Amino acid sequence: MELDFLKLSENIKDEIVSIRRDFHMNPELGYEENRTSQKIKDFLQKEGIEYTETAKTGICGIIKGNGNKTIGLRADMDALPLEDRKNCDYCSKVKGKMHACGHDAHTSILLGAAKILNSIKDKLNGNVKLFFEPAEETTGGAKVMIKEGVLENPQVDNVIGLHVDENIEVGKIGVKRGVVNAASNPFTIKIKGKGAHGARPHTGIDPVVIASSVVIALQNVISREISPTDAAVITIGTIHGGTAQNIIPEEVTISGIMRTMTTENRAYVKKRLVEVVEGTVHAMRGECEIDIEESYPCLYNDDDMLEKVLSAADSLIGKENVKILENPSLGVESFAYFSMERPSAFYYLGCRNEEKGIVNPAHGSLFDIDEDCLPVGIALQCKIAYELLR
């Protein structure tokens, strides 16, 4: 008899909605998710699911079925430093903190999936690991979790992740082949010149003028060295230097971020940033220090894994409710760390409902979800894991 995961999910909808609202009212920032973590552990204990603590406030649960193959399901837990301006019964009770990116929904969906999969573990041809990741919005708890061994003992074969999307109608999902999210490299450039009186610039070396040339020169890397069909960005976010209108300062500091969509372009843009900055600065008689941070990598969807997701979604919600996305996002997603280690798939769960006024963007103070998306997400995660283990 075929398992009806949508019906099983609808049966626990009220419980999961209640959990989601509790998380929404009590948001916690990255690596501060102590209450959230305890709620998750209490739930897993009640369901008889084993777990270990990882990455400070993270949790790795495991449901042991019959077999050695292991599928990982991942949810992120942290909120954002943002004031909740919604008018509803479950708005944030913590001033200046809000679940404005749907991580409360992701965590609740994974708990629902855990409850259902654990109830049918005798029918699972393998194991399911449950990754509750902290600090996705900051440094990415996934990296720490992987370093601490969540993909081992037993070895995880594949990982599945989802993210609610306010641009997709509830009941539908969005799927992107290939690259889903960009890689991120924040950088800081310190340009050193020689201070002088503003009326006698020839006696100094002006780091403000040098910095201006650097900003313009870096844009040529994107517009003239990266294929127009490949997305890449170099954004200068801050320029700091100087103390008065008539003083040429000693130094100027520039900071910004690079976003690239392929591993090859990431390496190339980093190399060219150093070459262009050093060349420009030295040509104008200055000195420089460059610091490029290694932040989130590109998120790649494995082709075979994505076909499994599409097959499960087609049978569960209908092919007409599966939207193939054409363009990747230049935003980052720490699920990328899992996708770099194991064949993985990541998809977007529709949570938009114009009739209910649920249309506001993520990372905004009015963000909300149509909670009808919760059982859909639970059923999909269960169906995908179940089929992968078959």
Automatic annotation (TrEMBL):
Transmembrane segments: none annotated. The keyword Manganese applies. The keyword Zinc does not apply. CDD domains: M20_Acy1. GO terms for molecular function: hippurate hydrolase activity; metal ion binding; N-acetyldiaminopimelate deacetylase activity. SUPFAM superfamilies: Bacterial exopeptidase dimerisation domain (SSF55031), Zn-dependent exopeptidases (SSF53187). Keywords: Hydrolase, Manganese, Metal-binding. Its EC number is 3.5.1.32. The Mn(2+) ion enhances activity. One of its GO terms (biological process) is diaminopimelate biosynthetic process. Its cofactor is Mn(2+). This is Amidohydrolase. It comes from Clostridium carboxidivorans P7.
